[in-house]
């Protein structure tokens, strides 16, 4: 009888051990899947708020009106220097608050970082726009 009890206990322990191993493998797979999804998503910037797009365009239009030149196109990205989905070169600028992007066959575009539009006053954003307007070929010589 003790041999049967010992055998039954060994079977129960083996099943519990194997069940724990399966649970551990499943948990590890879930962690790796979540990591890979977040890693792939970190390579792309999130879409930028339409209000920030409008604020950038308004600041550039105001500065261009004062300079009596046509305003260049504007765009807003989450972080200058971060990869941008859908872009051939993959990044815009190398950091900072704004940059003028020149691409062959396309008009220049002034690209603002989200931080510039959320953290600066309206006057500071216009000053930043004026600086970028001077670097664009449509700007004041």
Order of strands in the sheet with the most strands?
1-3-2
Structural class by SSE content: mainly alpha
Mean pLDDT: 78
Distance between the termini: 101 Å
Helical region count? 4
Helix content: 55-70%
Name the beta content range.
5-15%
The beta-strand count equals 3
The H-and-E topology, N to C, reads as HHEEEHH
Overall outline: rod-shaped
Structure characterization notes:
It is built from four helices and three strands. Helix 2 crosses helix 4 (122-135). The chain has 141 residues and is mainly alpha-helical. Strands 1-3-2 form a three-stranded mixed beta sheet.
Task: List its traits.
141 residues, mainly alpha, three-stranded mixed beta sheet, rod-shaped
Question: Could you outline the blueprint of secondary structure elements for this entry?
Answer:
Layout: H1 2-42, H2 50-67, E1 73-77, E2 98-101, E3 109-113, H3 114-119, H4 122-135
Parallel strand pairs: 1-3
Antiparallel strand pairs: 2-3
Helix pairs in contact: 2-4
The gist of it:
Helices cover 56% and strands 10% of the residues.
């Amino acid at each position: 009888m003790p041999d049967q009890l010992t055998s039954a206990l060994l079977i129960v322990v083996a099943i519990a051990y194997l069940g724990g191993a399966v649970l551990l493998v499943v948990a590890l797979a879930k962690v790796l899947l979540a990591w890979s999804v977040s890693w792939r998503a970190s390579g792309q910037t999130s879409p930028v708020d339409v209000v920030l797009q409008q604020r950038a365009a308004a600041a550039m239009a105001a500065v261009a009106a004062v300079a009596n030149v046509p305003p260049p196109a504007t765009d807003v990205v989450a972080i200058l220097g971060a990869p941008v989905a859908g872009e051939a070169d993959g990044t815009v600028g190398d950091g900072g608050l704004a940059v003028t992007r020149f691409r062959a066959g396309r008009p220049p575009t002034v690209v603002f970082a989200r931080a510039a539009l959320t953290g600066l006053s309206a006057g500071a954003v216009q000053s930043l726009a004026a600086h970028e307007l001077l670097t664009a070929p449509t700007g004041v010589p």
